[in-house]
Amino acid sequence: MTDGPRATQGKPRKAAIAAWIGSALEYYDFFIYGTAAALVFNKIFFPTSDPATGTLLALASFGVGYLARPIGAFVLGHIGDAFGRKRVLVFTVLLMGISTVLVGCLPTYDQIGVAAPALLVALRLLQGFSAAGEQAGANSMSLEHAPAHRRAYYTSFTLSGTQAGQILATAVFLPVAALPEEHLVSWGWRVPFWLSAAVVIAGLVIRSKLDETPVFVEEVADTKREKTPLLPLFRDHWADVLRVVVASVIAAVSTIFTVYALSYAVNTVGLAKTPILWVGVLANIVALAAIPLWAGLADRVGRKPVFIGGSAGCAVLMFGYLWSLSVGSWALIFTFGILLFGVVYSATNGIWPAFYGEMFPAKVRLSGMAVGTQIGFALAGFSPSIAEAIGGGREGWVYVALFTAGLCALNIIAVASARETHRVPTPELGQRKTPATV
């Protein structure tokens, strides 16, 4: 199976490494906000509320970032498909780095009143706008540089980078969370945000040296480029956009695990901060190895069986993980946490970058992935606050697990309804009638 002479001239390793590093830096920024929201933001930005309401508001501020994602997807998707993937990748890492550093500089509620949470939400919206183009741009870049028989493997590096960003975010918070409460609340929480200054420099250096994809260059040369990619996207590919929206709610497993479960363990059950943070670190370390392995399997047996198996496993293991938190057994917490997030969830994370991108032709690929995933991710982003609202105390974990399982079921339905694409040549991806599609 070949993709033609032009399509094989990409630089898959360089593109995959750039995607990995850029995503790691960008999602370090994105996830330190979630950790801070779970641990301290209820005290410094929402202190006038009772503890339960303050926690709910802090988690909701995490979800607010996902509101900007659909808007960012429309804007950055258009730019990426009309003017190139590289421009989007440089812009997103710059915006994310600046907005995150500014969060660390914010005055607290006690200093400036309601303006403090208002500014916090505004900067979170900028983070969400940036994240909307990050993964879709990096995935498009990796997919279009990759050889056809290894597209899942090379695109999975974007999500491995995301996991590395989570490791960095949690690892940086480990010594910070161990500070005395007065130091944590006064200045300690700011340090991880200030360290994001490195994102601006490193991200710009790495991505400014990356070549545009051969697929996009070919479109420019052959004048196939769409000036308004969103029009053909919604005219010809609306069903796949909808399919990606529904499938993308699987991201709720991540937000429930990293944000809600952390808040539930510390604020409701009363577990120590440091060990529960280590669960996330170890699970993400396992995920770094598991994601490319699952992706490699999907290149051999297909996207759908691996994806569906991972989603079903997440639905089951979330019950075990939340139950282990409720009983406070550290052995069970680490076991279920690593199995859920490190192993099984990695099956979905390793597959979706290729699977979603392969649903669309190159001329609308970045837009299709960005719009579809970011609407779905926006729903997932509010899962921690929804879980907090329906949980209702120590025994409420059952309702949260049922809620998560329901979202996994939606993902399974959407994925099962899609075409299998692992054997489709890259130039034929997204075409409505090809012998290779199902």
UniProtKB/TrEMBL annotation:
<keyword id="KW-1003">Cell membrane</keyword>
<keyword id="KW-1133">Transmembrane helix</keyword>
<feature type="transmembrane region" description="Helical">
    <location>
        <begin position="275"/>
        <end position="294"/>
    </location>
</feature>
<feature type="transmembrane region" description="Helical">
    <location>
        <begin position="306"/>
        <end position="324"/>
    </location>
</feature>
<dbReference type="InterPro" id="IPR036259">
    <property type="entry name" value="MFS_trans_sf"/>
</dbReference>
<dbReference type="InterPro" id="IPR020846">
    <property type="entry name" value="MFS_dom"/>
</dbReference>
<feature type="domain" description="Major facilitator superfamily (MFS) profile">
    <location>
        <begin position="15"/>
        <end position="423"/>
    </location>
</feature>
<feature type="transmembrane region" description="Helical">
    <location>
        <begin position="88"/>
        <end position="109"/>
    </location>
</feature>
<dbReference type="GO" id="GO:0005886">
    <property type="term" value="C:plasma membrane"/>
</dbReference>
<dbReference type="Pfam" id="PF07690">
    <property type="entry name" value="MFS_1"/>
</dbReference>
<keyword id="KW-0813">Transport</keyword>
<feature type="transmembrane region" description="Helical">
    <location>
        <begin position="241"/>
        <end position="263"/>
    </location>
</feature>
<dbReference type="GO" id="GO:0022857">
    <property type="term" value="F:transmembrane transporter activity"/>
</dbReference>
<keyword id="KW-0812">Transmembrane</keyword>
<feature type="transmembrane region" description="Helical">
    <location>
        <begin position="56"/>
        <end position="76"/>
    </location>
</feature>
<feature type="transmembrane region" description="Helical">
    <location>
        <begin position="15"/>
        <end position="36"/>
    </location>
</feature>
<feature type="transmembrane region" description="Helical">
    <location>
        <begin position="396"/>
        <end position="416"/>
    </location>
</feature>
<feature type="transmembrane region" description="Helical">
    <location>
        <begin position="187"/>
        <end position="206"/>
    </location>
</feature>
<feature type="transmembrane region" description="Helical">
    <location>
        <begin position="330"/>
        <end position="352"/>
    </location>
</feature>
<dbReference type="InterPro" id="IPR011701">
    <property type="entry name" value="MFS"/>
</dbReference>
<protein>
    <submittedName>
        <fullName>MFS transporter</fullName>
    </submittedName>
</protein>
<keyword id="KW-0472">Membrane</keyword>
<feature type="transmembrane region" description="Helical">
    <location>
        <begin position="364"/>
        <end position="384"/>
    </location>
</feature>
